[in-house]
């Protein structure tokens, strides 16, 4: 799934350090994808064999074309979707401690894709 929108990544460490965020999002492409395997298929850690590769959130901007990848497996702390009708949503990650703020007029069309992550086991306490 790809979503063209304004994205702002806010570190939750900034207020504790006495710093402030820029407060402005940038135009980006947000992709929901699976990570490519780093090793050939076979036994994995914990005795798990084969299986699906972990899903990740990939944010690519014009300035950073290689993008930033955030793993999603049991890493999503909370979804903030109160203003999804206004085209705004936020995904709070556990590690790294960041909030990914999304804004777009038609984000509600893709709104149903993000909550489905909890059904597939990518976050526990939702």
Automatic annotation (TrEMBL):
Keywords: Nucleus
Domain PIF1/LRR1 pleckstrin homology: 1-104
Source organism superkingdom: Eukaryota
A Pfam match: PH_LRR1
Alphabetized InterPro entries for the sequence: PIF1/LRR1_PH
Protein name from the UniProt record: Leucine-rich repeat protein 1 isoform X4
Gene: LRR1
């Amino acid at each position: 799934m790809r979503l063209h929108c304004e994205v702002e990544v806010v570190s939750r460490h900034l207020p504790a350090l006495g710093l402030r965020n820029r407060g402005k999002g940038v135009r980006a492409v947000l992709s929901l994808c699976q990570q490519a395997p780093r090793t050939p298929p076979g036994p994995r850690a914990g005795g798990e064999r084969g299986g699906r590769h972990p899903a990740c959130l990939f944010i690519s901007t014009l300035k950073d074309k290689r993008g930033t990848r955030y793993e999603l497996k049991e890493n999503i702390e909370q979804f903030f979707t109160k203003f999804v009708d206004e085209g705004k949503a936020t995904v709070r990650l556990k590690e790294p401690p960041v909030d990914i703020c999304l804004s777009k007029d038609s984000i509600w069309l893709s709104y149903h894709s993000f909550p489905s992550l909890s059904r597939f086991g990518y976050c526990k306490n939702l």
